[in-house]
């Protein structure tokens, strides 16, 4: 199927699998290096995407460094991918050559379990197939978006609406859906008070999305360092959590608290900021267990919840929503050779607010 196209001269076509440029971690403790990886030959339902941009997510760093369990190396990370379709399998109906498309955190699922049937492929009972470092349904280990091309089954390829530039759309594929889904589910909208804890890659999208949904938005950040940014991104209020007065002043205030912080926090203190019937939903993943006093929930009928990315249908809805409201992520565009430096800056929270790699430099 690859041989049939003349558009593929940027690929080196092997006998069975095309080889493409990529960046990969050779081991858990090693910096990423320029390399090549193999992509599978196009199947009947596959789409070949020429990647234009790949976002750097905090999860990429945790995964390649083995923080979340052992990996098979070399490993190419990247689960925020935007590009253009250059070839489709002969049974593909959802995408055509030239379409602007995206791929997020998963590239497959069983398709028939109760969660897949509801459109919650991220919660597939057989396990969704992560975009990198996961065993695909054909037994191979998936390789992510820090690469020039990727082959993905059509059901896991999203349309990027014309109104969105590809570079700023890229982080929506993880950071966007990770914050949109819980805000949507827990009813962020007009008349609702939403707090976003943490103003990093996830938090800055949470602020933009909650504001666009019509909610009154408050940022709760450790300090007031990024206050100006927070207000520019759409927040109505901004408080420092290092100031104990914040927790007195805002007690009983919020309908929804979106916690984007991966460091351990005092859940009971934050639950005290919820109004009766309110929900606090965590999308950050601290490695430790956190203590919750039952009375923090019982008094006020409060909910403590979690959320992981979103299904494919909802991810498309999120992209359409962002296009309609005219915003993507705030990004710093970098060449591939700066990936390792960018990782250090992400770990130091020194990015406003997402690194995006120009795929032409892979
Ligand atoms: Zn991510
Ligand atoms: Zn499933």
From TrEMBL:
InterPro entries the UniProt entry points to: ADH-like_C, ADH-like_N, ADH_Zn_CS, CAD-like, ER, GroES-like_sf, NAD(P)-bd_dom_sf
An example molecular function term from Gene Ontology annotations: alcohol dehydrogenase (NADP+) activity
SMART domains: PKS_ER
Span of domain Enoyl reductase (ER): 27-357
Cofactor requirement: Zn(2+)
Keywords attached to this entry: Metal-binding, Oxidoreductase, Zinc
Enzyme Commission identifier(s): 1.1.1.2
PROSITE patterns in alphabetical order: ADH_ZINC
Source domain of life: Bacteria
Substrates-to-products reaction catalysed: a primary alcohol + NADP(+) = an aldehyde + NADPH + H(+)
Pfam families: ADH_N (PF08240), ADH_zinc_N (PF00107)
Coiled-coil positions: none
PANTHER family associated with the record: ALDEHYDE REDUCTASE
Protein family according to the UniProt entry: Belongs to the zinc-containing alcohol dehydrogenase family.
Name listed for the protein in its UniProt record: alcohol dehydrogenase (NADP(+))
């Amino acid at each position: 199927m690859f041989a049939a196209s003349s558009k593929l001269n940027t690929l080196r076509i092997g006998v069975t699998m095309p080889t493409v440029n990529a960046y990969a971690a050779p081991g858990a403790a090693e910096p990423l290096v320029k390399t090549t990886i193999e992509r599978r030959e196009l199947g009947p339902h596959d789409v070949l995407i020429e990647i234009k941009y790949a976002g750097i997510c905090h999860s990429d760093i945790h995964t390649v460094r083995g923080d979340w369990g052992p990996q098979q190396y070399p490993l190419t990370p990247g689960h925020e991918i935007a590009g253009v379709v250059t070839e489709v399998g002969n049974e593909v109906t959802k995408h055509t050559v030239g379409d602007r498309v995206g791929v997020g955190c998963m590239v497959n699922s069983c398709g028939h379990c109760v969660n897949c049937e509801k459109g919650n492929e991220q919660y597939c009972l057989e396990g969704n197939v992560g975009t990198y470092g996961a065993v695909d349904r054909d037994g191979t280990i998936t390789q992510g978006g820090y690469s020039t091309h990727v082959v993905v089954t059509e059901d896991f390829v999203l349309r990027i609406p014309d109104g969105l530039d590809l570079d700023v759309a890229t982080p929506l594929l993880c950071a966007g859906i990770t914050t949109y889904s819980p805000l949507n589910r827990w009813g962020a909208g007009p008349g609702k008070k939403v707090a976003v804890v943490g103003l990093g890659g996830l938090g800055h999208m949470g602020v933009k999305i909650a504001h666009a949904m019509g909610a009154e938005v408050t940022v709760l950040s450790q300090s007031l360092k990024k206050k100006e940014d927070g207000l520019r991104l759409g927040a109505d209020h901004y408080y420092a959590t290092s100031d104990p007065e914040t927790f007195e002043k805002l007690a009983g205030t919020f309908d929804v608290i979106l916690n984007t912080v991966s460091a351990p926090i005092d859940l009971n203190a934050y639950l005290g900021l919820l109004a009766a019937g309110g929900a606090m939903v965590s999308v950050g993943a601290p490695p430790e267990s956190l203590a919750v006093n039952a009375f923090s929930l019982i008094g006020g009928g409060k909910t403590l919840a979690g959320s992981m990315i979103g299904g494919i249908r909802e991810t498309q809805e999120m992209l359409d929503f962002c296009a309609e409201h005219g915003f993507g992520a705030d990004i710093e565009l970098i060449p591939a050779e700066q990936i390792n430096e960018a990782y250090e800056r992400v770990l130091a929270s020194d990015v406003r607010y997402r690194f995006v790699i120009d795929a032409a430099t892979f």
